[in-house]
Amino acid sequence: MMEEMIGGIRAEIEEKIGTIDSSAALYEFRKTFLDNKDGKISQLMKGMKDLPKEEKPAFGKIINELKTWVIETFDAYDEKIKALELAKKNQDEAIDVTMPGVKSEVGALHPDTMIINELIDIFAGMGFEIYEGKEIENDYYNFTALNTPKDHPARDMQDTFYVSDEFLLRTQTSAGQIHVMENAKPPIKILSPGKVFRSDDDATHSPMFSQMEGLVVDKNISLCDLQGMLDIFSARIFGEGVKTRLRPSYFPFTEPSVEVDVSCFACGGKGCKLCKGTGWIEVLGAGVVNRHVLENCGIDPDEYSGFAFGMGVERIAMLKYGINNIKALFESDTRFADQFKN
Ligand code: PHE
């Protein structure tokens, strides 16, 4: 009777184990024999208490042998299945390292951004701090405080987008000069990048463009300080050996006012297409801060003086990268920006 049951267990395992193909199913099958409570072997053990005392040791030995065999059989088969499962997993997840990769797109900085970053680097190196103004200004900051009251003819130099009678889209980052001077005491040394807006539209003008403003106010600041700083700036942005030249100009908020040219970095000053044969290229407007502007901001013009400059970022980018239509900078064609990747 006992032998039969033991033989039955062995036969059942030997017959079925080969058909099992996952470690989860094997675990379930194993439980039907080895579970502490309901397993077939535990059930057999329970029968031991009904045996006569002298038969118990021999019975116990047989059951233990059976149990050892069952455990070993399952362990061995478990290892086999695990190896098969691992092999299958490796095959399913195999990576062919010889396959060509999928190229991911890498963006490029916009030429404007590159010029702005470069300018910030150059001027930060000279101790300038960054001030970012607002794109919507009121008439006072954009014009009146900059010595350009209502009906001043110089307002015509900048075709303005008015939002209301009082508010407008700033036409120049110079508006930021006033905010800075109203809130800080000299010495002041700021650089102010930002978008500006003018009703102007052709191959070299866009209704929205970017400017970079600079302002220095301290004791004894003169036009010489401006030119010294411009020489450093020009050589850094356009290349070693590039010189600057000041020409008289007019802005209501500077006196004297100048237009700044750099010697042509394409031909070295001999005259070429870029400089239209003149050897010089106009890059920015600047001047000594007008006394009235300092006064408007509560700064004593007898104690302090300053210089300011403002340049068009797109203009610098077009000159430096040889772009001949400003529209290319605003078409959002990524292939355009890609050309200037470095
Ligand atoms: N704001 C002037 C412009 O937009 C440039 C400028 C700035 C000139 C600062 C002088 C001083 O044309």
Mean pLDDT: 92
Number of strands: 9
Low-confidence parts: none
Radius of gyration: 43 Å
The total of helices stands at 11
Q: What is the percent of helical residues?
A: 25-40%
What is the CATH class designation of the largest domain? Alpha Beta
Terminal CA distance reads 88 Å
Percentage of residues in DSSP E strands: 15-25%
Protein structure class: alpha+beta
List the ions, cofactors and other small molecules found in this model.
Answer: phenylalanine
Name the CATH superfamily assignment of the largest domain: Bira Bifunctional Protein, Domain 2
What is the H/E order?
HHHHHEEHEHEEHEEEHEHH
CATH fold-level assignment of the largest domain:
BirA Bifunctional Protein, domain 2
Shape: rod-shaped
Strands ordered across the widest β-sheet? 1-4-5-9-8-7-6
Topology of this structure?
Elements: H1 2-16, H2 23-34, H3 40-46, H4 56-92, H5 111-124, E1 129-130, E2 136-138, H6 139-142, E3 167-169, H7 175-183, E4 188-197, E5 208-218, H8 223-238, E6 244-251, E7 254-263, E8 280-289, H9 291-296, E9 305-312, H10 313-321, H11 334-338
Parallel strand pairs: 1-4
Antiparallel strand pairs: 2-3, 4-5, 5-9, 6-7, 7-8, 8-9
Helix pairs in contact: 2-4, 5-10
